[in-house]
Amino acid sequence: MTSQEIRQQFLDFFQSKQHLIVPSAPIVLKDDPTLMFSNSGMTQFKDYFLGYKEPKASRIADTQKCLRVSGKHNDLDDVGRDTYHHTMFEMLGNWSFGDYFKKEAISWAWELLTEVYGIPKENLYVTIFEGDEKENLDRDTEAYDLWKQFISEDRIINGNKKDNFWEMGASGPCGPCSEIHVDLRSAEEKAKISGLELVNNDHPQVVEIWNLVFMQFNRKADGSLENLPAKHIDTGMGFERLCMALQNKESNYDTDVFTPLIAKVEELSGKKYTGILTDEKDIAIRVVVDHIRAVSFAIADGQLPSNGGAGYVIRRILRRGISYAYRFLDRKEPFLYQLVAVLQEQMGKFFPELEKQGTLVTEVIKSEEESFLRTIETGLIRVDKLIQQTISEGKKVLPTEEVFELYDTYGFPDDLTRIIAEEKGLTIDEAGFEQALNEQKKRSKADSAQKVYDWVTLEEKPENFVGYDKIESETYITRYRKVENKDGEFYQIVLSESPFYPEGGGQIGDKGLLENATESFEVLETKKENGLIISLINGLPKDAGAVFYAKVNATDRKNSQANHSVTHLLHEALREVLGTHVEQKGSFVGPDYLRFDFSHFNKMTEEELALVEEKVNAKIKESIALQEFRNIPIQEAIDKGAMALFGEKYGDSVRMIQFGSSKELCGGTHVKNTSEIGHFKIVSESSAAAGIRRIEAISGDKSAEYFKNLEKQITELSQLLKSKDVVRSIEKLIEENASLKSEVEGFKKEKAKGEIGDWKNAYEHKGDKQLLVKKTSLDAGSVKDIVFQLKKEIPTSVTIILSDYDGKPMITVGISDDLAASYQAGTIVKDLAKEIQGGGGGNPGFATAGGKNLDGLENAYQKALNI
Questions:
Q1: Which residues are CB-contacts of 268 (< 8 A; sequence separation ≥ 6)?
Q2: What pLDDT digit, counting tens, does each position of 393-407 carry?
Q3: What is the per-residue pLDDT for 857?
Q4: Contact between 214 and 143 (Cβ < 8 Å)
């Protein structure tokens, strides 16, 4: 049975049990401040469990893309070193929201595994929650009695809280669970030791295959448990492990989930995969095929590699794969990107985003590979310099500070530094490096640390967002909670009626005031969490239940919504000018400027930018009225021509914003008429990533301010140049400057000619060779010309010139051709450069080095005399 058939059978089975089959949610979470990625199948349904949203059906089934590489659920370090841990994996799941509970979940799981998939019953074990006195939780006897109907009691195992009480995180929905484990060992191995003893003991062939979670509690911030409004079922079956069981393999990597990718790696690398767990080559292949899946899906869902947040995690995964390929597969050129096509063929049917975004995914990965391989090559030079310095000092351990700087500042893999050092008989200070790493993590954690207390509920009332229609509203607080961070103590509040727009869709959240006759509080930010609009204020009212007036900062809102509306017009204009391949890949909308990232593989020309500007400003001048569809079925919106952004999660009903022919699904605030935007000006166009361009622009007040400042600059220039024709005056200055530079170059050459004669007579005989060590204030170009002439004219010579031109130390070394086999200019210059705290290089006949320490030139001079 192929992996595609296994996946389809699961979905078909639960469809026959009246479950609605829904697509996987994006692997990258954009509307949940508590998580970066979907780390379990239940993530997209969290609001249903908490009662914040109504599910579209009481029974749902799906296969969900998951990523476990950060936070509590982190499998990254295990990947490649065993047969079953992965960064990205599929979680097959069936869900009940207040419908069926333990009886149906257990009986259907048994039916699917034993009757549909045909797993022998004697190979299965189950666990139940044994209870926990500290939590005042009883043993799950209900699950035990239900399992007795299907499996012998000696195969039902009590499990502790760690294994059999499932929690999403430090707080949130949770409940007891029942795991199903499969024993895939041979009959001979089973005869030696019972599978009963190996369950939950990290045996690679006695593994958990399915977890049935009986979701009935909510873990509060203070650690206490409260009952959820209704009981739910949340199950998760590891797709890769299921395939291993059904295809009679000993490793997930031996299934057809991974074998096509492994075959491609073998083809590209010339290395044969043997499946040995301890073989570094095989570990590298497993890392590569695992990581390419995680990175490809993340990029397809809209998360580009970057230096912060979720983007940093994706970059780290990709660089880990590149590093393993570089070290153990001898891949010094980009090659991971060539695996994307194989992945598309395998999974494109079930995950169409791979097909649609395939070109982008491929180009981004290739660009990242090229960049990181350059980092490695640069790092190798730094490591070599560090090793030479350590050896010259007679030490055996590389200095911790420099090793950590290589890792932290330059992104050079620490394990690669370790390997290179060991080859030279050196080590790194493992304890010191670990301490530096931990200190960095502590600093990072301290910067982002935040203690969030439990909600204090004043009134159970659904909130009402009124910000589309007004920016001031009479309201009161329905719930609040204290928040402590490095900046102090604040309070998050939920209002009965809120005009504050919560951060989302690229637009920043509203700020403003919450005030009444006796008190006033600043609203510092507004965000959305678990369906609630939460505003952060700088104190707690004496009477939290009092009536207040919520007032949005009107100027900021006006400018933000102008910038948001203009992003829609910009998107349309870019598609008209560049082509329909253009898709939004990210945005930032604030009161001061907008940033718009879009798919396009070439730098935009000045003509293209001018045309886009022209089209957007034409729409502004047309005074197009906003057409807003607040609650329209998503399919109807798509049929009307609305743009849906890839990687965004939409509900059954959506909000569509239309300005003439521009139609997009959007939850942000907008102008009522395009004329309110005023004017649009592109400030810059640049590369955001491979295949992604970025436009930064301004509109409205900021655009007017831009042109006012420009006018002021032109006036000042005119006064400075004493001419109204600024352009002609500058052209004249450029011409004069070019003429003067030409004269200066002539003077330099004349001076250099004079120097050459003197320098030729200054060589010292050192045996049968000649050495010139000379100080000068000539510029680098002149020194280079002289050195090349001298190395041609003076046989068996070594020429070393030390320059202090423009107050910067520079060392130039030239070796005559007849000595090139005996002396290396690069080696000499690197040694001398230590004295000026610099570095450099070149070829055997010519090399240069710059530095920071001008005073060190004298030491370099004395050192050079002894060559």
A1: 331, 335, 338
A2: 888 889 888 888 888
A3: 93
A4: yes
Distance CA 130, CA 153 (A): 14
Distance (Å) of CA 842 to CA 532, 847, 848: 61, 4, 7
DSSP per-residue codes, 744-767: HHHHHHHHHHHHHHHHHTTPEEET
Give the model's pLDDT for residue 448.
63
The gap from C-alpha 305 to its chain's centroid, in whole angstroms, comes to 4
Q: What is the reported pTM? A: 0.75
Q: How many C-beta neighbours within 10 Å does residue 276 have?
A: 10
Find the helix packing angle between 280-300 and 358-392, rounded to 10°: 130
pLDDT digits (tens, 9 = 90+) for 409-427: 878 888 788 878 887 888 8
The rounded distance, in Å, linking the Cα atoms of 556 and 570 is: 21
Q: What is the distance, to the nearest Å, from the Cα of residue 367 to the centroid of all Cα atoms in its chain?
A: 15
- What's the DSSP call for residue 539? S
Q: How large is the greatest C-alpha to C-alpha distance in the chain, in angstroms?
A: 104
Residues β-bridged to residue 214: 233
pLDDT band per the 50, 70, 90 thresholds, residue 175: very high
Tell me the torsion sign for CA atoms 291, 293, 294, 299. positive
d(CA 72, CA 90): 18
568 is in an annotated binding site: yes
CB atoms within 10 A of CB 848: 23
DSSP string across 162-217: HHHEEESSSSEEEEEEEEEEEE---HHHHHHS-GGGTTTTT-TTEEEEEEEEEEEE
Tell me the three state secondary structure of residue 559. Answer: helix
DSSP bridge pairs for 694: 597, 686
Predicted confidence at residue 647, as pLDDT, reads 62
The tally of CA atoms less than 13 A away on the side-chain side of residue 790 is 32
Query: How do 165-167 and 172-183 pair as beta strands?
Result: antiparallel
Reduced to 3 states (helix: H, G, I; strand: E, B; else coil), residue 13 is: helix
Please tell me the distance from the alpha carbon of residue 423 to that of residue 411, in angstroms, as a whole number. Answer: 21
Least confidently predicted of 134-143, 455-464, 593-602: 455-464
Q: Is 564 marked as a binding-site residue?
A: yes
3-state secondary structure of 382: helix
Q: What letter represents residue 203's amino acid? A: H
Tell me the per-residue pLDDT of 605-629, one tens digit each, with 9 for 90 and over: 999 999 999 999 999 999 999 999 9
Question: Mean per-residue pLDDT for 256-280?
Answer: 95
Rounded CA-CA distance 136/158 in Å is: 17
DSSP assigned state of 696: E
What is the model's pLDDT at position 637?
Answer: 92
Token pair 């204290």 is at which residue?
A: 482
| Cα–Cα distance, 668 to 563 (Å, whole number) | 11
Query: Mean pLDDT over residues 559-585, rounded?
Result: 95
Give the three-class secondary structure for 340. helix
DSSP for 456-486, written as a single string? EES-----EE-TTT-SEEEEEEEEEEEEEET
**At residue 645, what are phi and psi to the nearest 5 degrees?**
-80, 135
Distances 381 to 309, 316, 327, 401, 441 between C-alpha atoms, Å: 30, 22, 16, 17, 27
The pLDDT, as a whole number, for residue 33 is 64
For the record, the structure tokens of 582 come out as: 């253009």
Residue written as tokens 């530095």?
A: 851
386 Cβ contact list (under 8 Å, min separation 6): 398, 399, 402, 403, 406
* pLDDT tens sequence across 746-770: 776 676 666 787 888 889 988 889 9
The Cα 663–Cα 763 span in angstroms is: 78
Estimate to the nearest angstrom the gap between the alpha carbon of 347 and the chain centroid.
22
Identify whether the C-beta of residue 666 lies closer than 8 Å to the C-beta of residue 654: no
Distances (CA, A) of 8 to 14, 50, 116, 570, 806: 10, 30, 12, 41, 72
The mean per-residue pLDDT over the stretch 808-819 comes to 93
Report, as an integer, the average pLDDT of 841-862: 90
Which positions ≥6 away from 45 have C-beta within 8 Å? 55, 60, 95, 97, 234
